[in-house]
Specification:
Elements (H helix, E strand, L loop, with lengths): L1 E4 L34 E5 L3 H17 L5 E6 L2 H4 L5 H4 L7 H9 L4 E5 L11 E5 L8 E5 L13 E3 L3 H10 L4 E3 L5 H9 L5 E5 H6 L8 E3 L13 E6 L3 H7 L5 H17 L7 E8 L2 E9 L6 E9 L3 H26 L5
Parallel strand pairs: 1-3, 2-3, 2-4, 7-8, 7-9
Antiparallel strand pairs: 4-11, 5-11, 6-9, 6-10, 12-13, 13-14
Helix pairs in contact: 9-10
Length: about 350
């Protein structure tokens, strides 16, 4: 059963994909009324994609324990309410998780399911990332009218995205393109493309694949063209620290390799103090036990792009992420970041 509450204020390293339900969001379990007092409560945003993710976690939990009662609690975040302003102007990543984390800390829910790329670099005290399931494709996809490829777009074409990471990298390779802000859920963005507001839009492959909109993809944008967001394609199951029961329930959902790779990417982000107000990207890939981590910092118009890679043992992913960030800082990323922070109120 689904409940809604109002709050107070390169290729992925794992090829196996989670089971996908039928297109769209399935209704909650139909086997009678759930006892909310005894059910495990999953907090999530209310978009179709967010609900798909929450239902996937619910299904996996109940596969492991068929007797487990699970309720999905929809929580509306500030990011869901403010749709006419770019994220960089209203606070960045935390807008999609703050209210859910408050519900988790208060005990109103028992765990939260987020898109990892929406997670800020810092986790609130008392909370922790309890599990990271196997990752979906981390790339971005280009979706255009009439299936026109990015390289074939006419001069001055209108491309929709509100991601500074995407826009700066696109402008670096195609400075002639007009970047137009694009907000809203997945269906809203596709609808705006279909209505002719844009010549093309850029979205995360993971959401498109999970919602079974593969036929809309014009092309996958490889990492050498647009480096992915930190954690893109991965889910984050957030729990309270020292909650042994919930930790035990979700531990089978954790994919160790994905968790380690994402931890390296997030260490890179944390060292840079990155947010949606700064074009920062990172992606890790595994070859055996060796992690290759690539990171990027750019200015807003894409004229300066600082990018580097590092390789090392997967068990040292956090140290690799920090080292990579320090390399970029030494190469000029600090100057870019300082300038962007000074002008943040104008972004």
């Amino acid at each position: 059963m689904v409940f809604t509450v109002k709050t107070a204020a390169a290729r992925p390293q794992a090829r196996r994909r989670p089971h996908r339900p039928a297109r769209g969001v399935r209704p909650a379990a139909a086997q009678g009324v759930i006892n909310m007092a005894g059910a495990l409560k999953i907090g999530t945003r209310g978009s179709k994609l967010a609900l798909w993710q929450a239902h996937w976690v619910k299904d996996e939990l109940q596969k492991n324990d068929p007797a487990l009662e699970v309720a999905i609690v929809i929580i509306k975040t500030k990011g869901d309410k403010i749709l006419d302003v770019p994220l960089a102007k209203v606070g960045g990543k935390g807008l999609f998780v703050k209210e859910i984390e408050e519900a988790l800390l208060s005990g109103a829910i028992d765990l939260a399911v987020h898109s990892m790329k929406d997670m800020p670099a810092d986790i609130p005290e008392g909370l922790t990332i309890g599990a990271v399931p196997v990752r979906e494709n981390p790339l971005d996809v280009f979706i255009s009218n009439n299936k026109v490829m990015l390289k074939d777009l006419p001069l001055g074409a209108k491309v929709g995205t509100s991601s500074l990471r995407r826009s700066s990298q696109i402008m670096h390779s195609r400075p002639d393109i007009q970047i137009i802000p694009l907000r809203g859920n997945l269906e809203t963005r596709l609808r705006k493309l279909d209505s002719g507001e844009f010549d093309a839009i850029i979205l995360a492959a993971a959401g498109i694949l999970r919602m079974r909109y593969e036929n809309r993809i014009t092309e996958y944008l490889e990492q050498d063209l647009i480096l992915s967001a930190v954690g893109q394609g991965a889910l984050c199951i957030e729990i309270r620290q020292n909650d042994a029961r919930v930790e035990s329930l979700i531990s089978p959902l954790n994919h160790g390799e994905t968790h380690k790779v994402v931890s390296g990417e997030r260490a890179f982000l944390h060292r840079l103090e990155g947010s949606c107000q700064v074009p920062v990207a990172a992606n890790g890939t595994l070859e055996g036990e060796t992690l290759q981590l690539t990171g990027l910092v750019a200015d807003l118009d894409g004229t300066r792009v600082i990018k580097d890679s590092i390789c090392g043992p997967i068990d040292q992913s956090v140290e690799l992420g920090i080292t990579l960030a320090e390399r970029l800082l030494d190469r000029g990323a600090k100057t870019i970041l300082d300038q962007l922070k000074e002008n943040a109120h104008e972004i």
